[in-house]
Amino acid sequence: MKDGHTYPRLAVLCTAGALTLTMASSTVAQQTQPPAPEASSPSWWQYGLETIGGVEVATTVGQAQIEAIDSGDQVVAEGSAAQDSISVSLYAPPKESGWELGPSFGFVSHTVTIADFDQILPQNAQSQGVTVGAVCSDPDSGQPQPCRGINAYKLKLRSISAGIEGGYHYVLQRKGSAYQPFVSFIAGVKAIEHRTATLTINPQSKGTLRRLAYFEAAHLSASAGLSWPQYHMALRILLSHEIYADFDLKTPAEFAGDVICDPELGRCSRQRVFVDQTGMSITGVSLALSAFY
Fold first, then answer.
1. Which CATH number characterizes residue 111's domain?
2. pLDDT tens figures, 43-84
3. Among 2, 56, 255, 274, which is least packed, fewest CB within 10 Å?
4. What predicted TM-score, i.e. pTM, was given to this entire model?
């Protein structure tokens, strides 16, 4: 056997009176190397996961600044209150330091409640009548209350959006470590979003909205977090500021206005103030958990 091949062997047999030549074959198992396996190409779902990157769920608490606008584009009331929200978006933590620009997709649900809206109500021009400085109280409890009534404000806003965001990431590389710290500074704009809003001013008056909005919301954020690549998970804390431009309500909501009395008629009436637009900005702190590919 030579070079892994089998060769015939010559045998010489001597017998009385004759010389015999015979050929014998030597059988030796030939050893061969198995062919190298072909590299498998990524499947469609792997491509999809790499494109998506990951999914993040975040909960936010913070302060919302609200303004209400009438049909004459005049601010009729404004105030601030605590707000809470929950969001789901496509996100993957950074793997290395540097600048990044890319698309953004997400859903967010905001809830803002103001028990007593701080009003800046306009005084309608009247040919007759005066604003009375009366002292009013609750008929059941006797406790003092504003004569115009308490305007309780509650806004529920849900938004599904696609946009663009970019910023800078700093990743602290740790050799042999199971986790990876990172810091990010991001700015973004919602290029297109589907908004659904319900504005309730006092239990009996509701304004609604359902429409598409284009480039009417933007945000800034700074975040710090940890990622665990071997577990495909990340946790981060964000400080963010969001701005939602004023948007028209499909159905207006009514405020409780000032009480105007006409001494000649001996009758008092309350002004009717309708809110046709609303807008807000939110500053909050978020805790976010993500799973990435």
1. 2.40.128
2. 665 555 566 678 999 999 998 888 888 777 777 777 788 888
3. 2
4. 0.67
